[in-house]
Amino acid sequence: MRSFQYHNPTRIIYGEGEYKNIGKEVAGFGSKVLLVTGKSSLKRSGYFDQVVSSLREAGCRVSVLEGVEPNPRLELCLKGAELCRRERIEVIAAVGGGSVLDTAKTIAVAALDTGDIWDFFLCKRKITGALPLVTMVTMAATGSEFNTNAVINNEQTGQKYAIHSEHIFPKVSILDPLLSLSLPADQTAYGAVDILSHIIEGYQTAPGKAPLSDRIAEAAMKETMLWARRALDAPQSKEARGNLLWCSSVALGGWTWNGWGPTTFHAHTIEHEISAATNCAHGAGLAVVLPAVMRFHSRNNAAKLAQLAQRVFGVTRYWNDTAEALALRGVNGFKRWLASIGCPVTLGELGVEETQIPEYARKIALNPEAGELDAAMAEEILRFAVG
Ligand code: NZQ
Ligand code: ZN
Fold first, then answer.
1. Sheet of 133-137, strands arranged across
2. CA of 359 to the centre of ligand 2 (A)
3. What is the pLDDT of residues 124-136, one digit of tens each?
């Protein structure tokens, strides 16, 4: 097992009806509140008014920033930061999907900063502070409610990059299954793929042997696949929605990778370029890219991917199987499962032509977090995703 440190200060409150307590939780950090939400789902489900009432009953003065889009834009973050300064906001409440939470995290940083906020995404400066943030997530996917990340699309430069900082751990995150009952089937499936990819990316590239982390990761993957199917079959199942929410938080909350050592997230780096260009949903892009990255790693990390195939995807090992053959059967089975829950599995389905691959690969290699993922490697992986 490799050396590790583990720290996650976010207080999770899980339960049906816990949404009513958002006012009380937020008021613990200040009374001047910026409520950040998405485009329309929160109003359509009727929870927007209830959230505002809960905040007001707790004595908060509420300013609202609505309209966060999937693949969230930097421009709205800058508008939100300006609003924070003008209204002397003390705490931010984010209610929505990962895009809403990431916008709120970026606003929390930008509100206290006087420089160019994009510097943080380019890794040119280090984040030194942020307003406190309370979140209530309405879909199981990113784990943003339980981690240090925010991913934002800079529409001026065409870059979709991330920040990572302890300062943007939410203070409190409420997971209430009632809020995700309205999530449509496609987003439910894409969210499940995102959860799975957060686990698989680390699992398949871990240099260290950490058997307990492997088992935690495998359990989280199996539960995600089980509850995703259940949520698609019975969208009103609070049990399925609740289990998926917890899988999502666990997947990217840091628990699974303790002892694995440094891992890589190439599917994410590649997908962020694709969703920045095509505006596809993050999970849809991952459904196409992740199996291609798994296939790439099946060559050098065959033993780990063979373990995944057997323990998670239920692939049988025959006496004459090589680890690579087993790994590849696992990847193909996973791809079939992705298609069975309604996900795209080829670049063409995302509107990306084969002729565009070299240009995508060139841009992917420019991501400050690309590391060993150079243009040649990105191109090889993308070619696996053609058909
Ligand atoms: O905007 P509204 O109207 O709310 O609709 C949203 C949006 O159209 C809808 N939705 C959310 N909850 C709903 C609902 N519709 C009905 N009922 C509900 N309960 O779903 C659509 C997608 O929302 P979005 O927030 O974009 O989805 P997701 O949570 O998948 O977030 C994706 C973003 O997070 C980034 C992705 O790159 C992408 O930009 N990521 C963030 C990470 C993090 N912070 O740790 C890690 C991830 O790997 C990922 O990169
Ligand atoms: Zn993701």
1. 11-14, 172-175, 133-137, 91-96, 32-37, 61-65
2. 23
3. 999 999 999 999 9
